[in-house]
Amino acid sequence: AKAKGRNTFHFYSQELNAAANERLFIENELRTGIREGQFRVYYQPQVDCRNNQVVGYEALIRWFHPNEGMIPPTKFIPIAEATGLIVELGAWILQEACEFAARLASQDLKNNISINLSARQFKDANLVSTLDKIIKQTGVEPKRLHLELTESMLMGHVEAAILQLHQLKALGVSISIDDFGTGYSSLSYLKRFPVDILKVDRSFVKDIPQDSNDMEITAAIIAMAQKLKLNVVAEGVETIEQIEFLQNNNCYIVQGYYYSKPIPEDELPALYEQLNSL
Ligand code: C2E
Ligand code: CA
Ligand code: CA
Ligand code: CA
């Protein structure tokens, strides 16, 4: 038993070590990557399923590491967050996404751009002035910008969060609640926050139409959001059955692989062509 215990401990400590090493590796590489410009912002369309028109895009960061290849955001965003590097990286993402939005506007495309904010970034006292500067410098219409936050980011210091949201909204941007339904807040609680859009989480959408519970929940979220005069976007939409279900339940703006994965800007012409042929 003793030997087994030691082996088990050995096994765990090796695993912990590997995790700590990977974390340290990513932290170091993040600094280099930011300095050397290894990041790109990809864009996933949000489509009005009634006419297959793009109404907006979500900006999603991609890291192309010279040796490791593409490192997914789920692997490095939490580390960027824990180390505070997300503030610098996040400001770069805001800048990129606003330049993209301004280019679309210059082609007369009235598309919204959704940008993910991390918890650290949202709490940062300089966020409002950073964003204000980027808006003025890029000339983007602030009403085109949708900032995506998660419920948990609002729950800790409620009064501070409400104040920060009001300051952001004073710039003219909209606030979107990401992954809605996966956190602990109720819709009535959420109403205390000046939010504009709910994104129904992929976990509710992915098993439609097989899972009747998920269908009930999704329909209920959409119905309540409408009563509260919030716009709804469904994410992770992969099938025509899911689109039909959402449409029948009055949710028309959808985002997911059914229409497109996140793509770099130079693939937009191919996207338009594909949507035209639907
Ligand atoms: P999220 O904000 O919930 O983003 C949606 C994720 O779902 C994206 O993964 C997207 O590629 C993926 N997705 C979209 N449609 C489908 C679909 O139909 N099926 C499936 N299976 N997946 C779909 P991604 O790009 O890997 O990002 C993962 C998470 O990393 C994001 O979740 C977000 O929390 C974070 N993230 C990504 N980019 C940024 C960023 O620029 N800033 C911050 N702070 N976080 C980011
Ligand atoms: Ca998001
Ligand atoms: Ca989401
Ligand atoms: Ca998510």
Automatic annotation (TrEMBL):
The keyword Membrane applies. Keywords: Membrane, Transmembrane, Transmembrane helix. Signal peptide: none annotated. Residues 23-276 form the EAL domain. This is EAL domain-containing protein.
